[in-house]
C-alpha cells in the first residue's frame, strides 16, 4: 500500500505512520517541517494554511490518505479536492465530539450530529471536525470515505498532557487526589490501537463512520491509576486518596481539566465514557490492556527526561501541586 499521511510527526499521525512502515507500506508524510518525520517515510513540506501551501501535493498518487486535521474545515476541503482523482480512499480521524449535545448514553454512529460546513474557517472543535467529515465526503464520496470518530486518545507521544500528567504526579509520590469511584468505567483508545484499526480498515476498503474507543468495562479509574502506580514504581511512595464525586465537586475540583480523564456521573460522563463501539469491534477493533498503554507511555516519558511535549493549542492538564494541596485540605475539613 502507498499511504499519504497529512501530518504524521507528532501524536496520532506519528503512530499511524510508524504502524504503516512496520507493515512494509510506502509512506509519504506531508508536514510543515517543525518535527522530523519517522525514519523510513518520505517527506513533503508544506503549510496547508498558507497560500500555495499544498503545492508539494500537486503531483503523485497513493492508495490512501489519512488526515487528522482539527482546525478549519476548509483546509480539509482543499486537500481532499486536490487529491480526489489521485488517491483511492480518504480516512479522516474525526471525533465523537461531532455528536449533537448532549449525546445519549450508549450512542452509536447514527446519533444526531452538530452542524458543520466544509467551507468553514476557524470554528469550535466539534463543528470543525464535522466540517472536516463533510469536506472529505464531498470530495471522495461516501464509498471512499472512512470517518474514524475517536474518543479519548492515550499512549506514547501524547502531547495533550492527560496520561503524562497522571504518571508524573504519581511518580512524585505523596498523597494523590484520586477521583472516584474507583470502579467507574472509563473509555479511551490507545493511539497504537487506533492506528492499527485505521490501517486495517483502509486496507479492507471500509467506509462510513465508526466510533473508535475501548468497549465499556475495558478499564476503570482504579485500573488506570493502579497501573500508573505500578509502571512508575511509586509503590508505597504514592498514596491514592479515593474521593467520591460529590466531595470533589464541593471542594471545587474541576473534572477533566484538573483531574484528567475523570468525569462525574451525568451528561459529560455519558458523552465521553459510554460510547457504543459494537460496529468497530465487529470490524476488528482490538484494545490492548491498560497496563501496557500506561507502562509504554511511562517508558516513553522517561526517554524524554520525564517531560512530555505539549501542543501549543491545548492548555496543560492537571492540578498544580498548590491546587491539589488546597483541594485535599478542603476535603480534610469536610
TrEMBL record:
<protein>
    <submittedName>
        <fullName>NAD-dependent epimerase/dehydratase family protein</fullName>
    </submittedName>
</protein>
<dbReference type="InterPro" id="IPR001509">
    <property type="entry name" value="Epimerase_deHydtase"/>
</dbReference>
<dbReference type="InterPro" id="IPR050177">
    <property type="entry name" value="Lipid_A_modif_metabolic_enz"/>
</dbReference>
<dbReference type="Pfam" id="PF01370">
    <property type="entry name" value="Epimerase"/>
</dbReference>
<dbReference type="InterPro" id="IPR036291">
    <property type="entry name" value="NAD(P)-bd_dom_sf"/>
</dbReference>
<feature type="domain" description="NAD-dependent epimerase/dehydratase">
    <location>
        <begin position="4"/>
        <end position="204"/>
    </location>
</feature>
